[in-house]
Write a sequence for this structure.
C-alpha cells in the first residue's frame, strides 16, 4: 500500500511538472496578452461583469432545472444531480492533487479579473461546471435553445478564463473534456 501511495505521488509530481512545462505561455506572451486588456479599464470591467453575470446565470439555470424536475416529478432528477456532482467532486480532488499554479502566480502579476485562488488551476472547475450544466440541459432535452445558449456561454467563459490570465489553455480544455466524459458516461451510456 505504501509503495502504491509513493508511486502515485511520483506520478502526480511528474504530471504536475509536465503540465507546468508543457503548454505554458511565456511571461512575454502573458504580459502582452493581459497588457492589452489592462490598458482598457472599461473593457476589463465589461469582461469581469460578463464573467460574473454569465457564471450566475448558468448557476441559476441549473438550480431552476433541478426545481423544475422536482416540481414535475421528472425521472431524470437523480442523474441530473449525481452526474454533475460526481464530476465536480472528482475534478476537485484531481486539481487539489495536481495543484498547478495559475498564470498570474507563475508570472508574479495580479490577475486581470479579481481572483485570489492560489494553485488548483488544472483542470478548470469553472469551465467544467459551465459545460456540465449545458450538457445536463441537453440531456433533459426539453429546452434546447437554453442548452445551446449555455454552451455558448460556457465557451465564452473558457476564453475569458484564458485571456484574463486565470487559466492556461490546457486548464480550460481539460475542464471541458472532463464535462464531456462525465456527460457521456452519465447521460448516454
Amino acid at each position: 500500500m505504501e509503495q502504491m501511495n509513493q508511486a502515485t505521488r511520483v506520478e502526480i509530481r511528474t504530471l504536475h511538472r509536465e503540465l507546468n512545462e508543457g503548454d505554458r505561455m511565456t511571461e512575454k506572451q502573458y504580459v502582452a496578452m493581459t497588457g492589452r486588456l489592462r490598458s482598457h479599464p472599461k473593457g476589463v470591467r465589461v469582461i469581469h461583469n460578463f464573467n460574473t453575470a454569465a457564471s450566475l446565470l448558468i448557476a441559476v439555470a441549473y438550480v431552476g432545472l433541478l426545481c423544475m424536475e422536482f416540481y414535475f416529478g421528472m425521472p431524470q432528477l437523480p442523474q441530473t444531480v449525481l452526474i454533475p456532482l460526481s464530476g465536480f467532486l472528482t475534478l476537485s480532488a484531481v486539481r487539489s492533487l495536481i495543484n498547478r499554479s495559475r498564470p498570474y502566480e507563475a508570472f508574479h502579476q495580479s490577475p486581470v479579473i479579481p481572483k485570489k485562488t492560489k494553485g488548483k488551476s488544472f483542470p478548470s472547475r469553472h469551465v467544467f461546471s459551465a459545460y456540465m450544466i449545458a450538457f445536463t440541459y441537453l440531456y433533459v432535452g426539453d429546452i434546447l435553445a437554453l442548452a445551446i445558449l449555455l454552451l455558448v456561454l460556457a465557451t465564452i467563459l473558457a476564453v475569458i478564463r484564458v485571456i484574463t490570465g486565470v487559466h492556461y489553455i490546457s486548464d480550460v480544455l481539460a475542464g471541458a473534456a472532463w464535462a464531456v466524459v462525465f456527460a457521456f458516461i452519465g447521460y448516454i451510456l
Observations:
- The chain has one domain: 2-188.
- The radius of gyration is 18 Å.
